[in-house]
Design goal:
The structure is a single chain. The protein has three helices and three strands, in the order H-H-E-H-E-E. By secondary structure, the protein is an alpha+beta fold. The radius of gyration is 15 Å and the shape is globular. A hairpin with a 2-residue loop joins strand 2 and strand 3 (76-82). It is 23% helix and 25% strand.
Length: 83
């Protein structure tokens, strides 16, 4: 319903900047056609890592990213591509 409303208003692109639960809900029914992944050199958690969430582990149809492009911004890296 939300996508229908946005489409009727001329919206053709939508950026979803969210955590693993909401991102997974867009990936499960193939609602996303492009991914942008940002990597920043920060330590997370007790051992400097952040494990994949249980929610994201439930994705049945894992997809490869195609037409990959990478950019750097200082120490940060952005990976973009199509699903």
């Amino acid at each position: 319903e939300t996508f229908s409303q946005l489409g009727s208003r001329g919206v053709q692109q939508l950026l979803i900047d969210a955590g693993p639960t909401l991102i997974t809900e867009f990936l499960k029914p193939n609602l996303a056609d492009e991914a942008q992944i940002s990597i920043a050199p920060l330590t997370l958690g007790n051992n400097g890592t952040a494990p994949a969430s249980e929610t994201m582990k439930t994705l049945a149809n894992k997809q490869n990213i195609k037409d990959v492009q990478t950019d750097t911004f200082g120490n940060d890296i952005r990976i973009c591509g199509y699903l």
